[in-house]
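Service request form, structural biology core

Requester: graduate student, group of Dr. S.
Request type: structure prediction, single chain
Budget code: on file
Notes: please return the result as structure tokens.

Sequence provided:
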Amino acid sequence: GLGLFLAFVFGAANAWLGMKAGQTVAATIPAAVIAMALARLPQWRAGVLEQNITRTAASVGEALVAGAIFTLPAFLMVEIDGVRLWQDMRSHYWEGSFILLAGGLAGILFIVLLRRALCVDAGLPWPESVASYEIVRAGQASGDAPRLVFGGMGVGALIQILKSEKGMPVFREFTEGFFAFPPSILRHFDFAKAPLREALHRGGVAWSTPALSPALLGIGYIIGPKYASINVSGGILAWWVLIPLLLFFDPDFAARSGAQAPGVAAYTIWMNVVRPVAVGMMLVGAANTMWSMRGSLVASLAGAWRARRSGMAGGERTERDLPSAWVLAGLAALSVPVAAIYHNFTGSWAAAIAATVLMGAAGFLLSAVGGYLVGLVGSSNQPLSG
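Core staff response, request fulfilled:
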């Protein structure tokens, strides 16, 4: 019951945040804190397993809502023969619900098959999972562990209050500006060395101080200097190299986009050019990593198939998976409503079956890539949230 309630609360909050700011925040850590706090009450006395169930229910609910707000609005934007596919969300409530139900269940079953390859063999830092583990461990342990966890929460809350406009703003979260280079005049000549025209080029570097975010500081501490440095280098490459180069080689971009101010032009390039490039790089990097892990993936799937009847009953309790026969049966059963959903849009069973097969394969690969990125940088920073 508590997990469902938290899934509703965090899902509603993230739906608002995602539609307003374009990014969601994982509910794993706050759900773990709430579950741990309530587990200490004498009326409940919940153990670690109950806390994990509560946290997982809240996290899955929040993730499903994130998928909804980033994908379902596309039906409102697509036009077929000049007519929008969906006119509004309210009249297509059940269609959207069935899409999310089928996709969510399929994603869970895909991850069951990939659990060992991602969680055991990949060696990922899993920042949010590590933080949740520390919270649960602090709730069960005595000594300094609870004091350190709650002390860190107190410091983070204090920083958040002092920098928030809705709290007591003492200092700004960050400051930014634009460092303009001196203008350069380029003279163009033909083969006779006669001047043809002059072009005035302007450029510069948009700068910003690091954001004072307790959540991002905590994630950076968890993932360590290696992965944190990779994230920082991506920002440096974008703002100190790619954006100035694009503005230099295309000096008319600001005039075409209507962004006369240098800072606005830099932000426009970041939003429309650099961010899609970055998402593509993340997907290529994740796909390359998954290709390098193909042996582990095949071994994981083969092991799951060998243990399809016993569910790994002979191993450790924490290493048992759902029998692969159950997983494959569930995926086969889900293919029926998925094909029906495609038929509802296409009107052709042949196209619906082909789309079901193709998107099923794509869904499995994207589940592997998404799971890898969550283990690397956390669910708040993977492409789904961007």
